[in-house]
Amino acid sequence: MNLKNIRNFCIIAHIDHGKSTLADRLLEYTGTVTKREMKEQLLDDMELERERGITIKARTVSMQYTHGNESYELNLIDTPGHVDFQYEVSRSLACCEGALLLVDAFQGIEAQTVANAYNAMDQELHIIPVINKIDLTHARVDEIIEEIEQTLMMGEDEIQKVSAKAGLGIDELLDAVIGTIPPPEGGVDEPLQAMVFDSHYDEYRGVITYVRVMNGTIKKGQKIRFLGTESNHEVLELGQFAPQQRPCEELHAGQVGYLICNIKSLELVNIGDTVSTANASAEPLEGYQPPKRMVYCGLYPSDGQDFKELRDALERLAINDPSFEFEPETSDALGFGFRCGFLGLLHMEIVQQRLEQESDIDLVQTAPNVTYELTLRNGETKVIHRPQEVPDSGDIEEFRQPIVKVNFVVPADYIGAVMKLCQDRRGVQKATEYLSPTRTMITYELPLAEVIYDLHDKLKSATRGYGTMDYEVIGYFPADLVRMDILVNGNKVDALSVICDRNDADRRGRAVCKKLKEEIDRHMFEVAVQAAIGARVIARETVRALRKNVTAKCYGGDISRKRKLWAKQREGKKRMKSIGSVDIPQKAFMAVLDTGAEKR
């Protein structure tokens, strides 16, 4: 395929604006899949994606399309829309020359739309704005065009109008892709340089590596070298996705495809690495920015014997999703497990569900927390991934928390509700911009800990579903923070410790104890649930003991007989409390989080 007849592009949009449906129509109109093979959201082939109706993994597909008596190869990458999967989007943008920026004809420009557009501009991609769902009876096409012109500075003549579901405007969109997105640069005769932008693990064939060839040619049977890991391999198979794997003999500059080299060791493939020939002296391509994991939690097998299976499952998942990390840790309450880092709360939830579904392991998950920095009195700086790592307050010079810039796009009627929401979370307003007479973008700086858990849900409630948000980390700033420990039956439960604002600690401690009192089952002895900062107990609740009526057999007679039985029962309960253990259910670990927003 001639370089000038190749187009590499991706679809970027806010969540639920119709990316996967548009990808379906493009596959259908280019004849890549037959009507018999067609199904909705064809590229969302993961069980969890179809179950939840969202795109989790970026997928690539090569389409052959004839335009003006010439044959073109269109390489499409469908990307996720949720802010937690921004890393997937950034990898896709690095392999393309153009992007289709999809905007819903009713909902208009949303927070993630703006964020994705700016990312594409930073990569110097050619952007084609596309208004989707124009066939809806309540579509606001003219207003959306005005929003695009005002927010993204693009003219009306650049905007394509389509209905991905009904198939309207798809031919014109394909013509725009061929006519306006530039062909890839690079030389077929240059030394081989190919960028690794994704991979997944096949149990029988090893690591399947997704590559975009920047320069040169890869051939079947050729010896190649991964420059980052300095490992050599033989290409056993290579090909393209159409959308299933379609083997071919070679891939040349400008093309997107996959490699199979029978790589069984997961450490040998790094996302963002450069592939070259074994004996060439090619320069590595500029890779990706490493992902910033901002949310950490512990994952433990319910059955301690499943620890090895959990480790194997995490290693397999890491090759498929390089944006999370894990390391072994132990907990007094939960035994052996792993400390895992994620990009956000949805990302954490997805990884947990994938582990349970794909590996059939029952997991216990601790309350998630964000990363903090602190400076000790001896001048040392520490990065804190979990509350247990926080030293005594006397050793801490300064505690710093991550602050994020959050852009809210909301109808103008709900500005007051959003401002109230942010003020309750210690937010600082930075800007207000009107996208149109009825829609506003409000910018706040907020602590990340106040954003990750339920801010999105509260925003939807406050704006009746019309508000959207997007955030990016801007740095670490000093704050008055403390570690709050939870004691159950006098024993500190490390998995329930949290880092919180000092002014909020008393209220949070009372709420946690109250919640745990509801979640912990009653035992044969009284269970004390306490919240403490250092040695100072700030809240307490008591789970009452189950009681047996030992005097039921006593009727009539002297009261001393009953007193004797009650004293004997008290002694037994005291002995039981000293040697008894309290079972803490999984719901109790998440209950710590529920209390964080109880005052809102």
Secondary structure: elements and pairs:
Layout: E1 6-13, H1 19-29, H2 47-52, E2 59-67, E3 70-78, H3 86-93, E4 98-104, H4 111-122, E5 126-132, H5 141-152, E6 160-161, H6 170-180, E7 193-202, E8 206-215, E9 217-219, E10 223-226, E11 231-234, E12 237-241, E13 245-248, E14 250-252, E15 256-260, E16 274-277, E17 295-301, H7 307-320, E18 325-331, E19 335-342, H8 345-359, E20 363-365, E21 369-370, E22 372-376, E23 381-384, E24 396-411, H9 415-423, E25 428-436, E26 439-447, H10 448-452, H11 455-462, E27 468-478, E28 481-488, E29 491-492, E30 498-501, H12 502-519, E31 527-533, E32 536-543, H13 559-579, H14 586-594
Parallel strand pairs: 1-3, 1-4, 4-5, 5-6
Antiparallel strand pairs: 2-3, 7-8, 7-16, 8-15, 9-14, 10-11, 10-16, 12-13, 12-15, 17-19, 17-20, 17-21, 18-19, 22-23, 22-24, 24-26, 24-27, 25-26, 28-29, 28-30, 28-31, 31-32
Helix pairs in contact: 7-8, 12-14
